[in-house]
Amino acid sequence: MVNVLGLTFAVLAALALGVTSIFVRLGSRSGKSNEIVIVTFIANLTFVVPITLYWYYPNFGLTPRAIVAFAMAGTMGTFFGRALFYKSIETIGASRTEPIKATQPLHAAVIAALVLGEALTATNLFGILLLIGGLALVSREIVNDDDVGGSDNVSPALLVVPLGAAFFFGIEPIFAKIGFEEDTPILVALVVKTVAGLTAMTLYLRVRNNFPSFSLRSTEPVVLKWYALAGISNTIFLTSYYAALETAPVILVVPLVQTSPLVVVVLSLLFLSHLERVTPRLIAAATIVVVGATVVSLTT
């Protein structure tokens, strides 16, 4: 039977993630990616912390197991996943990294079956593989030709980097599900996850001497607008994503959330047509993604 509530939250998360990607893209045209990362973290906490304190203080529903689980979720996905993702783009290029990162739903599904005991049927797996294939094609198509990066000759050994990113992104929801077993509220979970992720990312950027020297006065108003919108939409994404994980299995949630590149394509064509082009391969890939997502939704 289809989990309607979980499916709804997962679709909302995919929409919000796609919108976030558009805002990040617009903001990074004049700003810096590391600025966007930190500003997004701060925006998450700015919105979530006051509401969490108002609704749940002093009983936050946290146990030691929940704290560790959500902190690991923030560290695994937000820090390790993102750090390896950026490193992969720098090393082998975005056009090679994005399709490999699209294997995240498979990592999440297999680990969820092994660790959480979620049922992974042959039909589920078929839908996930369809989804991955379509996402790989979509991701490759929407990468700008002039922003590929990396070298033409890539050693197969370097593929470990994007595979590592996909693995860490895939393992994050497993830790989140473990945390939710302790009946921790969604917003409290987000605070723990975000603080852990922000702490790890700050230390990482400090060590690399790449921490942004962000200033409201020196930043262009249009850039601030995109940063703020990215922070708001990302907060909606995280809240919806964790609401989906609380109510539905990982095997359903993660594949649906990863359809966000479709949202990016549609919004880009509507509002950024000068930056995007429609190709027959893109249409075919989008169709594969829709079919795969439908199979996963109806069989989970």
TrEMBL record:
Short name of one Pfam family: EamA
TM region positions: 6-24, 36-57, 63-85, 106-137, 157-175, 187-206, 226-244, 251-272, 278-298
The organism of origin for this protein: Natrarchaeobius halalkaliphilus
Keywords from the UniProt entry: Membrane, Transmembrane, Transmembrane helix
Name assigned to this protein: DMT family transporter
Membrane among keywords: yes
UniProt GO cellular component terms: membrane
All residue ranges annotated as the EamA domain in the record: 5-139, 163-297
InterPro entries per the UniProt record, alphabetical: EamA_dom, EmrE-like
